[in-house]
Every structure is written in C-alpha cells, then in structure tokens.
Design goal:
225 residues, mainly alpha, Serine Threonine Protein Phosphatase 5, Tetratricopeptide repeat, 9 helices, 75% helix
Amino acid sequence: MDFETEEQQLEALKRWWSENATMIIGGVVVGVSSIFGWQYYQDQTHQHAEKASVIYEQVFSSTQAASESDDVQLKVNQLIAEYSDTPYASLSALVLAKQQAAAGDYSKAQQQLDWVVKNAQQEELKFLAKIRLARLYLSAEQHDMALSLLNETYPDSFQSMALELKGDVLVTQGKNLEAKAAYTQAQAVSDGANRWLQMKIDDIGESSIDSSINLSTADTAEPSA
C-alpha cells in the first residue's frame, strides 16, 4: 500500500505494532529465555560433574591410603545416589570393589561390581566390571558364574582379556584342552605378543586340541583389567 504522507505511514506502523507487539515481544522473550536456559543447564551440568569429580578423588585417595572402608562406602553411596549419571559413580564403585576384594570381602566387592554392570552408562566400564566380577567368581570358586559372564559377547578391546580369563577358569576345572583352546584364541586376538599367555599355553603341554570344540558360546576376550 502506498502512503501519501509520512503521517499516514507512521499511523500505519502504529496500527501494525499495536496488532503484533504481543506476539513479537513474546517471541523475543522465548528466544532469550531459551538461550539463557541452555547456558544455565550447561553451567549446572558442569558444576554437577565437578562435584562428582571431587567426591571421586576423595574415594580414590582414601582407598590408596587404606582408610576405613565405611567412610569410603558412604562417599560411594553418595555418588551412586546423587551422581549416577556421571562416570564417577561407576569409577568409585570399581575402586571400592578392588579394595574390598583385596581385603577378602568378596561379597561386598561383588555388590559394587554388580551395580556397575547394571547401571553404568559407559559401556567400557560395564565390560571392565564384568571382567573383574568374573575374576571374583573364580577366586570364590564359583566357576559356572564366572563362565556365564565370560561367555557373553565382548568388544574387541576386551576379547583377549576375557578369553584368557576363561582359560584360567577352565584350567581350574581340569578342562585343559578347552583351556588351551581359549588361551590360543586369546593370543590370536591379542594386540601383541603375550609371553605370559604363551607360558600358560606351554604349561598345559602339547596335547592336541580338538578343533571341533565349540568356543563361540564360551569365548569372548578382553584386555587386562
């Protein structure tokens, strides 16, 4: 529409503004709120992770200093209850489980590792917890429980470790041929030469391995945990 005078143009702008001001202002407010809301969320997330990191450092330092496990357990419980969305909850549970296992308290260590397996949001921590849990089962002579975990599928980075541990369990059961097959498979998927693994193979002897042994359900490997 053409305007004959500036006054007509000004009046038209006033009418347009009165009709659309609410919508425009609302859009600006929503846009600004979204920006500041996202920044606030990021700040809160960062602070949340920092707090979890501080508590985890306390857990780690306490276990290194062999502090009272009750105090460490309280901190781990806090991380699990309030910061389970961060890696620090799972890391602290792994640290505490290691201390408990060293003290021979396998039951409590298993509880910590079970929590990581079921709740960790980082897959690497879940697989690491499975490997350590299988070792605990082996120490407690719960061989079937250990093999049940080790027969699961593991990513490449954990395959050699899982297969070697599986061989350890089978040796304990007196199943030397199956153990040697597991060790050999672990060596095959290992990143480099493993002299310790080769020694385990040599210790079993030169017995022929039945190539028909089905390891697909009993093998899966891993790296050292």
